[in-house]
Amino acid sequence: MPNASLDRSPLALAQSLIRCPSVTPEEGGALAWLAGILEGAGFSVERPRFSEPGTPDIDNLYARIGTRAPFLLFAGHTDVVPPGDVARWRHGPFAGTVENGVLYGRGAVDMKGGIACMLAAALDYLDVAGPDVPGSIGFLITGDEEGPAINGTVKLLEWARARGERFDHCLLGEPTNPDVLGDMIKIGRRGSLTGRLTVHGRQGHVAYPDLAENPIPGLLRLASALLAAPLDAGTQHFGASNLEFTTLDVGNTATNVIPGEAHGTFNVRFNDRWTAETLGAEIRSRLDAAAGRSVRYSLDLLPSNSPAFLTEPDAFTELVAGAIATETGRRPVLSTTGGTSDARFIKDACPVLEFGLVGQTMHQTDECVPIADLNRLTAIYTRVLAAYFAGRQADCSTSPSSP
Question: Residue 270's Cα: distance from chain center in Å?
Fold first, then answer.
């Protein structure tokens, strides 16, 4: 059982995590600290480290208590983005300072605060349930969410499943609420596809355009073709897909030279109407139609590990939403907005929902979270655990969730 002398408040746990300088890809002591707390609470803990040529080695953590179904998995990441100019912070980014009821520090909301709440909830629940959990509780924590996301959650899931681990549901603690705790549950995410477009011309003197071929008008024509008509009008749970150009450039420092090439980069956040393959085919079709015989271009669509996905609302969704409503008085919206997260990997292992803190200060200078939100989120997670395992003490049996 948990160490009775440990300050297990979500504030104290969040401070301890924030004080570990785990700027991606550095572990910074965060996973080691977390492992010690979980082991002390009776969890079986392992720390696999994964490698890939050309990417940093990454420390990860997997913990489980219980051997039976159902298996509820908490997931998240301890790595954080760099703090930037430390002199611009009101308090040290790794000091875990409290001022006027607010905790400051890098990772306060994204997402060491969320992990602290999950940990506090699990410890609170074990105080009541005892070591013989009517099911299984797990933690799947990576140090590679803010980085390339190659040696983190995706490999940790493969490692766990190769050992026979099977999960029934997952709750990912990303900061999902736009304004107030209780606003939003993420039930899916849009996909992401990046393309690099090059229009080929022929370099020459601006005074002799007949001896050159300016690629810039062609690039503008192709870019306009991609932006002219919407990709779609949205689907039941997703808004419309959007394509945004992020660069249009030639790298030309001379004013009297027609460049030989012009480049554009775009990113598409797409809904569940598309896959990366079907979307790529649509983009090429539009470019071919606009290019005709007069524009020579090449397109490089970068490999994507970010598909659009949806967790269909079900009884687990209602359980989580009910816990949120009870503790906050707010009925959360079910949403698929925002960027990508590690849920895109977890969805292949089990149904996954995302719910965490308010994300207004994530990645910003003076990232912070009200202590009241930490306490309330812990209460929500504790209520989820109690409801998830309710009535199972007498009839739990070994199932495919067992290793």
Answer: 16
Give pLDDT tens digits for 303-361.
999 999 999 999 999 999 999 999 999 999 999 999 899 999 999 999 999 999 999 99
Residue 362: DSSP 8-state: T
Q: How does strand 169-172 pair with strand 352-354?
A: parallel
Is the CB of residue 177 less than 8 Å from the CB of residue 231?
Answer: no
Surface-to-core class of residue 294, CB atoms within 10 Å of its CB (0-12 exposed, 13-18 middle, 19+ buried): exposed
CA atoms within 13 A on the CB side of 159: 19
- How confident is the prediction for the chain on average, in pLDDT? 95
Within the chain, which residues score under 70 in pLDDT? 1-5, 391-403
Per the CB < 8 A criterion, the answer to whether 27 and 60 are in contact is no
SS percent in the chain: helix, strand, coil, step 5: 30, 25, 45
Question: CB–CB of 128/136 below 8 Å?
Answer: no
pTM given for the model: 0.90
- For the annotated catalytic residues, the residue numbers are 79, 145
Burial of residue 98 (CB within 10 Å: 0-12, 13-18, 19+) is middle
